[in-house]
Write a structure and sequence with these properties.
The complex is a heterodimer of chains A (208) and B (187). Chain A is an alpha+beta fold and 208 residues long. Chain A contains four helices and nine strands. The N and C termini of chain A lie far apart (54 Å). Chain B has 187 residues and is mainly alpha-helical. The longest helix of chain B has 28 residues. The chains are: A alpha+beta (208), B mainly alpha (187). At the A-B interface, helix 1, helix 2, strand 6 and strand 9 of A face helix 1, helix 2, helix 3, helix 4 and helix 6 of B.
């Protein structure tokens, strides 16, 4: 079966395949939403997924204000640095916890000055990904508490079904820049895929 | 990254992008969550678009919005367990499927839904973006926040696993006996 045939098969079971196009009522609702959104402020602190406009909404369903994400700080769970003396390669291993993807939290704005204060920061390449953990070899350390590990394991939080951070899953072979505080990986942009932008931020935060 | 937009430019660009993405976003959300929650997801996504308009790459506005919607959908599902994706309901309880299946689709289509539903969540997601949203790998890369190369590899594997599932399904229909275990267990 070629790609076109496969795609057509999938389209047969598209849940909205036979949904009707928007009527006048739907278009009016869209226009109202547009106007409501454009009245909201863009100056409030950065929120990951659902910002908090101050005004009320006449929309059906929850008000715009009600859609705001619950506030929660990036919690820290103590996970010790594990040194595996039995490893025949004499590799130093470390383990960190990934944040619980089920915790809705608001993010502080990304700031290189905050990045520079992270007690743990490294660049690593993913060697393995399962639903419960991600294995990385460390390409370089920027700053470490204690011994600088050769390999790192990131543990998926209980109840989470896949290894992800900020909504994106880890991919084998990709390189990531990671910061951690008190045993937990920092999200909200303080860890992520090693894009040129993030590389540049890390280079600024950790000179030399 | 573009420099900050002046207020008039910002308003104009937002209106333009809103018009382009609103209907696709609506359908995107309705495919993946209960109708009662889908509109909230659309509104949340468009709020983020308004606030982060300066950061949205030109030419990739819709995939960028799908990327935001992805996080909003995840949040909405967690906070409301009734918000099962339509595909989960279709693949699951028979008594709830008749309302969501296309009335013109035949009984044969259940094997497609079955095959899709038995793939991993990641496989289903990438196949849906490819088939239902009609996205190319470079746009799927924007949605998922990974490289286009990683998308191409993952998409290729997901298609292969789906084809295998569909072939197994045909065997099941023909012989009443299933030959293989879950495809993702053998990867």
């Amino acid at each position: 079966m070629n790609d076109d045939e496969l795609r057509n098969l999938l389209r047969v079971v598209d849940p909205v395949r036979s949904s009707l196009p928007q009527g006048a009522a739907d278009e009016a609702a869209a226009q109202r939403l547009l106007e409501e959104i454009m009245q909201t402020s863009i100056e409030t602190p950065d929120v990951r997924d659902a910002p908090r406009p101050a005004h009320r909404s006449r929309r059906r369903g929850r008000s715009l204000a009600g859609l705001a994400a619950a506030a929660a700080a990036v919690a820290a769970i103590a996970v010790g640095v594990v040194v595996n003396d039995d490893d025949k390669d004499q590799q130093v291993a470390a383990s960190f916890a990934l944040p619980d993807a089920g915790v809705i939290s608001s993010c502080i704005a990304f700031d290189v000055n905050l990045l520079a204060q992270m007690p743990t920061a490294f660049k690593g390449t993913v060697t393995s990904v399962t639903d419960s953990e991600v294995g990385l070899t460390v390409d370089r350390w920027y700053v470490a508490e204690g011994e600088r590990a050769d390999v790192v394991t990131l543990q998926v939080a209980a109840g989470n079904t896949s290894a992800s951070l900020d909504g994106t899953t880890f991919v084998q072979g990709e390189t990531y820049l990671v910061t951690a505080t008190e045993g937990m990986v920092n999200s909200c942009g303080f860890s992520g895929l090693a894009t040129p932008e993030l590389e540049s931020a890390f280079a600024s935060a950790f000179p030399g | 990254m573009s420099r900050a937009l002046l207020p008039d430019d910002r308003a104009r660009r937002f209106e333009q992008v809103f018009a382009e993405v609103y209907e696709p976003l609506r359908r995107h959300a309705q495919r993946r969550i209960d109708a009662s929650l889908a509109q909230d997801v659309v509104a949340e996504t468009l709020l983020v678009l308004w606030r982060r308009l300066d950061q949205v790459p030109e030419g990739s506005e819709l995939p960028w919005c799908y990327g935001v919607a992805r996080r909003c959908l995840a949040n909405a599902r967690r906070s409301n367990r009734r918000g099962l994706r339509l595909i989960e309901r279709v693949a699951g309880q028979a008594d709830t499927t008749t309302a969501v299946l296309d009335p013109s689709s035949g009984a044969d289509d259940s094997h497609i839904t079955e095959a899709l539903a038995r793939l991993s969540v990641d496989d289903q997601e990438i196949l849906q973006l490819w088939a239902w949203e009609g996205l190319e790998p470079r746009d799927i890369a924007v949605v998922l926040g990974v490289s286009a190369n990683a998308v191409s590899i993952r998409l290729h594997r997901a298609k292969r696993r789906l084809r295998a599932r569909l072939d197994n399904g045909k065997e099941l229909l023909a012989t009443g006996h299933e030959g293989f275990g879950r495809e993702e267990d053998t990867q």
